[in-house]
């Protein structure tokens, strides 16, 4: 049985010597860089993050990239939902940061720092590693760090000194917690506290969690009252969609998620034969199987939301993938990216869902390539769904100045070689 302490999100056990632990972690970090093996006392959380960072080909040295200039940063701040709760975040964290000479940072869901505030000398020191507004601190870009890893894990985390993947960050300790839209559950960003060794105390993790929860509560108070006849479906980036309706949040099974996505996409409804073909690759599946699945779904949703003949949803259901499409349609590519949490039900094999998934991804990819914005292209390229997307990596290489192309060009060369090998293998098999 796994020891629960090994799964702790707190960086240091009570009574642990921070200097001794720092030395142990430095040795473990160097061993990982040399041989790819993770040694104790590296926590499972950190080990998994190091491995993701290595797969993303993050360099252990260097600084974060500042992706937003002053004008872009101002626009992102103004448009971001967390701007509405920044007065509350400042009120809750001001004394804590000031007394401890810490920094408080708030990032968006892409890991871009929108606000970095706190002690002047600490801000100056952090600026030397580009821990500044406009910089991208996603885990896939700079490796293990509290805000980036909190977003990747969607959990509150602490990162202590040499647990950071990049060496220039290993004198720092930080704690961060994700913030969600209280209505839809969508990840909005994270609140982070960064400073010295003292932040490895469990109190700092509890503090930043409390700030994140207070921000969510404030967002709920500021939000307009929900449409009593409407609902919202979140289906990007997960095989289990989340439906918010009638004041309830329902996490749906993969098959029920597919049905809700298709019915939301076809508000006029689908006949039984149409839904059967849309859901099942095997044309021999009996209509009885579908009716049984719909009966189970009706029991989950309640009888008032799902009607039959044709099968349809009786309430207006907005979706995150429709939100992306609307923003693309208005030319708001950056705004569309902030909503895009990944491919639509990525594991679904339902034919109609797969077609819809490809259509949405292709439209967003094409818009990103046409926009030729290095920051937006990097957000896609360094994501789990974009790490092998050759056209986007090529567009990113073309959009970057020559001085910043080395890593991207190396990845592009690797992808081109892998694609050529795969094509050659397919030809030999044919």
From TrEMBL:
Gene Ontology MF annotations: DNA binding
Record protein name field: Acetoin dehydrogenase operon transcriptional activator AcoR
Keywords of the record: DNA-binding, Transcription, Transcription regulation
Signal peptide as annotated in the record: none
Domain OmpR/PhoB-type: 247-313
Presence of keyword Signal: no
Any one Gene Ontology BP term: regulation of DNA-templated transcription
Cited SUPFAM superfamilies: C-terminal effector domain of the bipartite response regulators
InterPro entries in the cross-refs: GAF, GAF-like_dom_sf, OmpR/PhoB-type_DNA-bd, Sig_transdc_resp-reg_C-effctor, WH-like_DNA-bd_sf
Source organism (scientific name): Streptomyces hundungensis
SMART domains (UniProt xref): Trans_reg_C (SM00862)
């Amino acid at each position: 049985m796994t020891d629960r302490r090994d799964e702790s999100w707190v960086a240091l056990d009570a009574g642990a010597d921070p200097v001794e632990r720092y030395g142990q972690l430095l040795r473990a970090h160097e061993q990982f860089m040399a041989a790819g093996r993770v040694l104790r006392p590296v926590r499972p959380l950190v080990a998994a993050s190091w491995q993701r960072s290595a797969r993303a080909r993050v360099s252990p040295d260097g600084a974060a990239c500042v992706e937003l200039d002053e004008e872009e940063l101002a626009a992102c701040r103004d448009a971001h939902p967390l701007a509405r709760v920044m007065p509350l975040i400042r009120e809750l964290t001001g004394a804590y940061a000031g007394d401890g000479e810490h920094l408080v940072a708030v990032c968006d869901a892409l890991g871009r720092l929108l606000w970095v505030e706190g002690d002047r000398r600490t801000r100056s020191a952090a600026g030397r590693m580009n821990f500044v507004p406009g910089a991208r601190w996603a885990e896939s870009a700079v490796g293990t760090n509290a805000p980036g890893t909190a977003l990747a894990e969607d959990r509150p985390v602490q990162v202590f000194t040499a647990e950071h993947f990049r060496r220039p960050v290993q004198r720092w300790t930080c704690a961060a917690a994700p913030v969600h839209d209280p209505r839809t559950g969508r990840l909005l960003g994270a609140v982070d506290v960064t400073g010295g060794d003292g932040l490895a105390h469990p109190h700092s993790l509890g503090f930043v969690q409390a700030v994140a929860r207070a921000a969510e509560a404030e967002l709920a108070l500021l939000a307009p009252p929900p449409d009593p006849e409407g609902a919202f479906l979140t289906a990007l980036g997960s095989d289990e969609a989340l439906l918010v309706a009638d004041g309830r949040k329902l996490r749906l099974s993969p098959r029920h998620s597919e049905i809700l996505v298709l019915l939301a996409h076809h508000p006029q409804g689908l006949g039984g034969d149409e839904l059967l073909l849309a859901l099942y690759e095997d044309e021999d599946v009996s209509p009885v199987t579908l009716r049984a699945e719909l009966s189970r779904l009706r029991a989950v949703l309640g009888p008032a939301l799902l009607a039959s003949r044709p099968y349809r949803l009786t309430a207006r259901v907005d979706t995150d993938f429709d939100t992306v499409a609307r923003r693309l349609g208005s030319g708001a590519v950056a705004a569309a990216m902030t909503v895009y949490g990944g491919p639509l039900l990525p594991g679904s094999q339902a034919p109609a869902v797969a077609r819809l998934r490809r259509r949405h991804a292709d439209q967003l990819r094409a818009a990103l390539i046409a926009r030729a914005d290095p920051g937006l292209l990097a957000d896609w390229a360094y994501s789990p769904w974009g790490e092998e997307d050759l056209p986007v990596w090529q567009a990113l290489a073309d959009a970057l100045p020559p001085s910043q192309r080395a890593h991207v060009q190396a990845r592009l060369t690797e992808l081109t070689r892998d694609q050529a090998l795969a094509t050659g293998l397919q030809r030999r098999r044919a």
